[in-house]
Structures are given as C-alpha cells and as structure tokens.
Amino acid sequence: xxxxxxxxxxxxxxxxxxxxxxxxxxxxxxxxxxxxxxxxxxxxxxxxxxxxxxxxxxxxxxxxxxxxxxxxxxxxxxxxxxxxxxxxxxxxxxxxxxxxxxxxxxxxxxxxxxxxxxxxxxxxxxxxxxxxxxxxxxxxxxxxxxxxxxxxxxxxxxxxxxxxxxxxxxxxxxxxxxxxxxxxxxxxxxxxxxxxxxxxxxxxxxxxxxxxxxxxxxxxxxxxxxxxxxxxxxxxxxxxxxxxxxxxxxxxxxxxxxxxxxxxxxxxxxxxxxxxxxxxxxxxxxxxxxxxxx
Length: 294
Fold this sequence. Notes:
The structure is a single chain. By secondary structure, the protein is mainly beta. It contains two helices and 22 strands. Residues 1-12 and 101-105 have low confidence and may be disordered.
C-alpha cells in the first residue's frame, strides 16, 4: 500500500492500472503518480499561471485530458485540452463568467459532467439556469444557445454538442433535447423526486440519474431510452453523485447513511445489449433444462 500527500483540488482519477492523475490548486498543477514505484511526473501546465481553483476531466475513449482553472478573484475559466498520450496541447480558450448559474456563480460547478465525452464542448447555464449555452473548446466563439422552461439542476452533454440531457428543479423527469432545434428526443420517467445528477458513460451508451433524496439511482440505455437498472440504496441510505469509471462499465456512487457514515459503492453498469444477451442465455438454459421432453 502506498500513499502520496498533496494539496488536493478535490479530484483524483485512475487513468490506468499504474497511473493516477492528481490535481492541486496551489500551485495549479496535475501530477501523474505511479503507485507501484512511487514516481511523480508533472503534466505540462506551465501556461496556467497564478493561484486559483483547478478541475480536470479525462476522456478515455478519445485519450483527452481537459483542465479548467478558475483564476483567483475572477469567475473566468481558462480551459485547456491535451492529447493524453503525447501531452501536446490541442487548444486553449477563455470562458467568461464560469459555467454555473447566475444564482450560484461557481466557475467550476460540475465541470466534468458539463464537458461532452469527446472533450470538444462545454455547457454553461445562463439566466439563473433558464438557458444553456454550449461553448466550443476547439474553435472558441462557435457557441450554441438552448432555452429551457425551468431552472436546470442536472445536465449531461453529448458529443459534438448535438444533444443534452436536462433535469429541472421542478420536475422528476429527464428531457433529451437536440441543441440545434430544441426538439425533445425522449422523456425519461421513473423518479419520484427532482433530479440532481445526470451522468453519461464514456461510450455514451448509458445514462445514470440520481435525485435529491433517498431514492434509487437509475441507469438508462441511450439507444432505446429504456431503464435498464434500478440501484436501490436500501433503508437509511442516500445515493448521490454517480460517476462512470474510465472502463465505461463501472459506476461509482457516493453513499451516505443516516448515522453520518460515508461510502463509495461500485456497481456494474450493463448495457441493454448485455442484458438481452443474459436474458437470451437464461431463456435457452431453461428451455434445455430438466423439464425438456425426451
């Protein structure tokens, strides 16, 4: 067992069996730690100067590392993208006003969830969450605006900024909408309380949703938009802040008990195809079982 002491920015991410990405805010940096041999290697963040808050997200499918620094005394964000393999900087843009709502001006609020899986688009809520602005991290000024009827409380952005999954603070459902036209693609119903978190898997095949209270975390298939799993917290427990690991098949969910105990639970996150395969295998097993006529 090995440990590393550092000034945390509240983020740590497994990028491989022998690599952990560690973020710190003072000074702002990302370090690559190999827990096997104990070596530390700094990721090139020299262009980000001064003190501030740091957040980063790793996009394993596209091998991208995206980091955002909220400058001290400012709500502006400096967002940089790197090729994770070569550590070559791909782009750098400044987003004025951060990405939170006007009522909660947190420049780094839900940074990873607001970043599209391809690492090219970042969502920003405007007008107290009543509108969604999609920023291009590649071209800079090529932005899109999507109006919403209620304040956005949870969101997930699809690749190319084409669609967004949205939940308001007044509804118990998720709306899937095209960003360009505002058209509703699907409505996901099944929660009894307003939703707080929406998370998209790295391969964009699954969507996880969590509400504001003691309720199950639900898993949805993004091809059929059907519910494929209901993760029940059990009595006296709250599940919140689900996050997919880089393998795309494991879901890490924070759990809080009534006694104040806090845990992180890991769940299997099957796709609809996997569930169909298991059901077909089970059906075949039953049809060839001991009750088969001779």
